[in-house]
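A reminder from the course coordinator: this example appears on the midterm review sheet, so study it carefully.

Given structure:
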């Protein structure tokens, strides 16, 4: 696992040094994010075409696609995208998903991330495959961390069986409000330590089964009741307040080697208040100062909090410019425009080529591909080493998480 200078870094941030790590200009254009450890390219190496490197940072959905011979899926893997996202319309049965994923991977001829959104409870894209499960809140109230790890392992085994290797879960957001809130019962707990313990247990279970977990939604979405699918909001909290509560579960996950962190679309007054975290240089600076050296992923750039202000191409450029490695968009029809905008941004000097290379190298390495061949960068990503979950039952522990 890579180093995690957690407490000292947060102390610096709390002292007001965050602005030195990356800011937005008065025009809203991002400046360089905080540097992280990435191997220098070999002077004798020639990277792949710029178009391929730009496509490699995109993780996109395939709306309505259920078979590997449909044009959208084929065009996306031919383009060289870094990964696919499967949503409900893509999932009919285990056999169908298995054939879809295998066919697209065969056409790609290279490692390809295949992700979905399986949190258990009400956000469960692959319910047809893994079955209905209890909400994270219920899991934490009725089960031990070890039982949750076992449960997540079972979910992961079913995902692995059909070829899905990334799950955009678990949530580390804090919430004990109405179950139907935008976070609500998707949260394990409003208590930071409890949310961290159960989130790590869920992550470890997925990892046990060979599925890469994604902790979300950094830097914590529980302080807002706004649905960023539809509109924007700004969280008014200091870095010190965030550090004591919302950031604690993420720090635990980073210290344990979390490979992917997803950022949310809320603005934060202590960071770049007018920008959603997904496009905020200071949000990525905060994440990196906490010791994270894995893949920083945006929430879907088609959500209203972003898309009502910036179209897909501009949002993709802003995200990578700010410090994202993977730009997620559930509508793969936008991928070509996003790729072309990234290429143009590098060509114009707006987006440093080194920043794009760093992002493409991380996503490619996560997929198991040859990052050095693509970008001339050879880097190491963190690997999950979650501590063994406690076997002590919670006060209301049930015999089984699914009960």
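Designed residues:
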């Amino acid at each position: 696992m890579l180093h995690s200078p957690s407490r000292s870094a947060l102390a610096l941030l709390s002292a007001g040094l965050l602005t030195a790590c990356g800011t937005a200009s008065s025009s809203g254009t991002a400046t360089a994010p905080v540097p992280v450890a990435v191997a220098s390219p070999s002077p004798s190496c020639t990277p792949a075409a710029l178009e391929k490197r730009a496509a490699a940072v995109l993780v996109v959905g395939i709306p309505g696609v259920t078979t590997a011979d449909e044009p959208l899926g084929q065009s996306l893997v031919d383009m060289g995208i870094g990964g696919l996202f499967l949503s409900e319309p893509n999932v009919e049965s285990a056999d169908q998903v298995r054939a879809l994923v295998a066919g697209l991977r065969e056409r790609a001829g290279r490692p390809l991330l295949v992700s979905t959104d399986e949190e258990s409870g009400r956000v469960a894209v692959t319910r047809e495959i893994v079955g209905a499960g209890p909400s994270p809140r219920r899991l934490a109230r009725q089960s031990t961390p070890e039982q949750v790890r076992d449960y997540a392992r079972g979910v992961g085994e079913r995902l692995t069986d059909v070829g899905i290797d990334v799950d955009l879960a678990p949530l580390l957001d804090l919430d004990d409000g109405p179950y139907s809130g935008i976070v609500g019962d998707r949260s394990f707990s409003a208590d930071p330590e409890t949310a961290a313990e159960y989130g790590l247990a869920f992550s470890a279970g997925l990892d046990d089964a060979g599925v890469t977990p994604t902790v979300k939604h950094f830097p914590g979405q529980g302080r807002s009741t706004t649905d960023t699918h539809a509109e924007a909001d700004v969280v008014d909290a200091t870095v010190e307040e965030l550090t004591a509560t919302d950031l604690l579960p993420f720090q635990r996950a980073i210290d344990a080697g979390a490979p992917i962190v997803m950022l949310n679309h809320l603005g934060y007054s202590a960071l770049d208040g007018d920008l959603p975290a997904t496009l905020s240089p200071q949000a990525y600076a905060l994440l990196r100062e906490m010791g994270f050296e894995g893949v920083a992923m945006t929430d879907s750039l088609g959500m209203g909090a972003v898309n009502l202000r910036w179209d897909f191409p501009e949002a993709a450029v802003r995200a990578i410019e700010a410090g994202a490695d993977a730009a997620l968009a559930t509508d793969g029809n936008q991928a070509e425009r996003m790729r072309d905008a990234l290429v143009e941004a590098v060509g114009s000097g707006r987006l440093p080529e080194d920043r794009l290379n760093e992002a493409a190298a991380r996503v490619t390495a996560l997929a198991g591909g040859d990052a050095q061949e693509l970008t001339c960068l050879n880097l190491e990503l963190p690997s999950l080493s979650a501590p063994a979950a406690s076997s002590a039952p919670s006060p209301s522990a049930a015999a089984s998480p699914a009960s």
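The radius of gyration is 20 Å. The chain has a mean pLDDT of 88.
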